[in-house]
Amino acid sequence: MKLSFNNKGWMILTTLGVIATIFIYYFLIYVKNQETLMTKNGLRVINQIEHNFNDLKDGLLKSSKVASTHSGERNPLLHEMTDSDLTSRTKAEANDEVFFDENRLIFRVKTKGIENKQASDSESVKYFYIELSEIFQRDILRRDDVFDFIVIHDSKENTNLYTNNRLGNVRFDSILADSLSVYPVELGYDNYLVFTTKLSITQDVFLAGYINQGKFNSGKREVPLGLVILSTISAILFILCLPLIKLKVMSNVERLYISDVLFSGFSLVLIPAVLLLLSLGAASYFYQAKSSTEKELSDISKSISKSFEGELEKIVKQLETLKKRTQDENVNDLSDLAGFLEPLFEDKTTVIWDENFKMKLIGFRGVNSHSLFDDFNYFNGLFWTDSQGEVRSILALRDNSAISINLNHRKYISDVVKNDLVKFKDSEIVLESIRSVTDGSFEVGVGIKSGIESLPVLALSAPMRSTMYSIVKKGYGFCIVDRKGNTLFHSNIEKNLNENFYEETNLNFEGKEIDGAQNFYISKYNGKEQYIYSRQLDNLPDLRIITFADKQYIHTKYTITLYTTLLLYLVFLLLLGLIYSIFYLLNLRTTKLKQLVFPLNWLKPYDTEKHHLLYKYLFGLNGLGIFYLVVTTLLFQNQHEFLLNSLMLVSLILLFINFHYLTINLPVQKRIFSVYYTRDNNVFIPSFIFAGIILLAIIVNRANYWIDANSLFLWDFGMLIFGVA
């Protein structure tokens, strides 16, 4: 027996096959890949938090050393304490420079031989601390976009030093953490996935990030928004096509109901409109939105890079000006430099001498108002250092100008000594984004060769106003990164030096593109899909400026426009349907025959010569109406009310003309059967009156536009003459 399928069988089989393929791919491939990517991202983020924590810890340690030797301004995050404030369990570890003590991070700084050479060992140590809650109040160290909460756990004492879990203390399994970087845990009220790393090897202190298991599972099953939109559109089109599909698969013996014809008609009306709207939406989504956003991000990039390089140029010019002045004054060492500077700032001078009564450092405070600094006068410190990175002379805004500090760990000092400079216009410089060791503020450090052999480095530190205090629109941002993607400057200043942009976005702009290339991408950043634009800085090719915009903010206006247009289109169809219903009822005549009249019977085509000629005329008239609307839209696209008025005017005229001529040209038997027939042919008089009232109201409203702009009247009058002809 031969197996065969009818139309319905093939349709069902094909549908089931497509659905099965989609589900197999989704569960066996897509979800597994998403789980792997999310796990890798969790590990990367927990390690990034550890890196940021260690950077902050090292900076605070340097700030502690500065604060221990100078009583002036210090990092506001640091608090001083004594040995007696330490708990008994941490005193055994108090020989370490940095260690944990309950919910604090302690910094131990030796001061012997600096302030009090005769002090005993116990008196030569100072302690500073910062609360862990102060450290982890920064989002860059909590990463709420990835983890539900974090835990700092001391495995030796089996206690949690810190957690931002609002539900209270959290059980931590240090045995599992020693062997696994990721493992599941049940906390009683919910299940979590734990990502761990060590913060302190000597104390066995762990950092753990907890992600809710349900949230993690939802994330790996999450489908991209673009795919959701595509699926929704496909479902809508499939639903609209169902009446037509039914006509295709139904057999010849099945009965065709009026509802089948009505739904098929609605499908034929709605499908082209929906396809047109989707085409316009796709053009806006994939082309207009991207191109306009790329241009906008490019403009922001150019504006910020221009400001950044302009400010940097002022800094370099200031350093070069000072360098030239010292060369003109034949400055060869610290004493010559002091002789040059003291007359300029004689009432603002502080001198520090070493144990052999030689000048160790000379400092000048509050110097920014001097005419010597007309090029750039809002620096925090301008100084000369020796080849070991020791500050020997400093010009400062603040009162604590005489701070003897070694800056050899700063690249903008050490790279100048190593002669590892980069070209910036006509100068050679070293640029570095830094965090001040005195007050913890974010700054930029710029160093050049001073031309003085014993003081080879002339450098300046200052807040970079062009990048650190720039205001951008909500949903937009920018950053400047080095070749490895490390963030040097960011519109969110807390991310300075605390983020690798390439790792956060899984993008790498180096190695696969030529120098100077400009790139436009779409990638996930800050937990959201972003448009990302990248270009090299014109005069600093080792740096890239990256601007980005949240897709949600960009596409919201396009989505609102698309759905508003669709809604207005449906309202427009309902309005036309209401007007047609009135036409139909006004033309309807009572009859003693008990019959069911199909309201759209007059749309049935007839294959006669008379009807062929009529259809050509009506087709030309309808085409003329569409042409008028298209051209009117192009000519008067900013006159929104006039365009709506035009749409209603043309639609009503075409509806009435098509209804009238198709109805009166029905075969006589169809007119009698459809109750469109009377012997005196006066059946259309009520509908004429109704149409005249509506058209008169529209034209009266339209007259206001004719008065305001003669060009509108001339355009309408010209099209009317053409239409009549």
Describe the 3D structure.
By secondary structure, the protein is of the alpha+beta class. It has 4 domains: 187 residues, no CATH class; 62 residues; 135 residues, PAS domain (Beta-Lactamase, 2-Layer Sandwich), CATH 3.30.450; 137 residues, no CATH class. The chain has 18 helices and 22 strands. The strands form 4 sheets. An 8-stranded mixed sheet has the order 10-11-13-12-17-16-15-14, sandwiched between helices. Strands 6-5-9-8-7 form a 5-stranded antiparallel sheet. A 5-stranded antiparallel sheet has the order 19-18-22-21-20. The longest helix is centred in the middle third of the chain and has 71 residues. About 2% of the residues have low confidence.
Topology:
Blueprint: H1 7-69, E1 79-81, H2 88-91, E2 98-101, E3 104-110, E4 125-131, H3 132-135, H4 139-142, E5 149-154, E6 159-163, H5 174-179, E7 182-186, E8 191-200, E9 205-212, H6 213-221, H7 225-249, H8 258-328, H9 334-341, E10 349-353, E11 359-365, E12 381-385, E13 391-396, H10 411-417, E14 422-424, E15 427-435, E16 442-449, E17 457-462, H11 465-468, E18 476-481, E19 487-490, H12 501-505, E20 519-525, E21 528-536, E22 544-550, H13 551-587, H14 609-635, H15 640-664, H16 668-673, H17 685-708, H18 710-724
Parallel strand pairs: 11-13
Antiparallel strand pairs: 1-4, 2-3, 3-4, 5-6, 5-9, 7-8, 8-9, 10-11, 12-13, 12-17, 14-15, 15-16, 16-17, 18-19, 18-22, 20-21, 21-22
